[in-house]
Amino acid sequence: MISSATTPTLSPYRPGTSQGVEHALRALLGLPDAVALRHRDLVPEREQRVWLELEIGPTDAPLRLRLGESSGASEARTPHRLQLQVMASAQDLASLTSPLQRRLAALDRTGDPRRDAFLAAVRAHRAAHAVPPGELATIGPQELLLRLTFRCNQDCSFCWQDRTWPSPPLQQFETWLDEAHQQGVPLVVLSGGEPTLSPHLLPLLERARSLGMRTGIQTNAIQLAKPHVRKGLRDAGLGYASVSYHSHDPALSDEMTRAPGTHARTEKGILAALADGITVSLNMVLERRNLARLRETATHLATHLAPAATAGNPLTLSISHPNAYFNRDQWLQTMAPLDEVESALREAIGILTTAGVQVRADGPCGFPLCTLRAVPSAFALDAAAAIPDANFGARGDAAVCVGCAVRDACVGPRNTYLERYGERGLVPFATRPSGTSSGRNVGAG
User: Fold this and answer.
1) 395 vs 414: CA distance, rounded Å
2) Which domain-ending residue is among 129, 153, 188?
3) Whole-angstrom distance, CA of residue 391 vs CA of residue 406
4) Distances, alpha carbon 271 to alpha carbons 259, 264, 274, in Å
5) Is 76 a domain residue?
6) What is the torsion angle, in degrees rounded to the nearest 10, for the CA atoms of residue 98, residue 100, residue 103 and residue 105?
7) What is the DSSP letter of 35?
8) 247 and 374 share a domain?
């Protein structure tokens, strides 16, 4: 596994939802702060039913309970009826059992708001901990990535996110931004979901500017079609916009983003941003559906969007190798094998390069370098040194990769790709191509 000893670090995010559950439990059960209380969720994160295991009192002799929503026929009539099961009881705490049972029954009968507050606190805690670790903020030597929200005005079928995931408060993002600045990270990228839907976007851009950091956003550009949005971004110090763009064909694009009519709005936003002098870099997720029409998409970009850029501010394109989707069945149907991707990339990159569009297909979301063998302009041998370690967690080595001459400079194939296709399309470099020889250190992990 590839590792780095110089990657900056961020303080962990503690959403405080566990304390919220404890507070709601104490109010529900009438327990004073002096009585020890511990809780554990018994239900998988994506399920809605609330069912907890509780321990009340000292750890060596607690009252052990299970508390949550009842199931069965009665649930249809009173869907939030609470049920209490006594699992074990220390002798000196046994007297609590009957009063607790009577208290919960009374709360159910009266529809007491403390009951609903408890259920809401558990679901909020569950939602906060459903977000994969490290996805809210990712840091590397050259870049801090912050995901401001998981809300989006599209619903891309290839997305790995759940739109119901909650986001931290502005103060937490400000803390991470300050920490990155203190460690010398020069660039902050604000992402989502769709970051233009977050109220935190402009304040964070302004804070980054005040710290002397460069800034970028990852967006679908729908909001960029609005003049007041572009003005707000420019005034806040936006450096560039990385725009999701997956096909020139409106029907195919709208199918992939599951947001009818938004392709036209994305193109309008791109053209408006370019006209305003905003640097635009397109990002394309390449899978089976758009792979077959990649040549046509490249021609459209070369003839319709690239001419809107200026010589000093040209259009660029990065092409991404998708990871497993939130809908795994969808991913299994649409992941393209690397040997099919290689020939299509070669032709498309040739069209775009001729039109002055710089294309990259390496980096943290990119392809193994052997897929780009015929288009060396699309990768750099020193690029992997700047990639955050977190981005390598989803990557692995196939046996064929061990002897590759550029292994130290390559992100490697995605683990999900290896599960689906094995070593298909992976052809190691026998010799190192000309270029920078620096790369990341390859460890034994």
Assistant:
1) 4
2) 129
3) 18
4) 20, 11, 5
5) yes
6) -70
7) S
8) yes
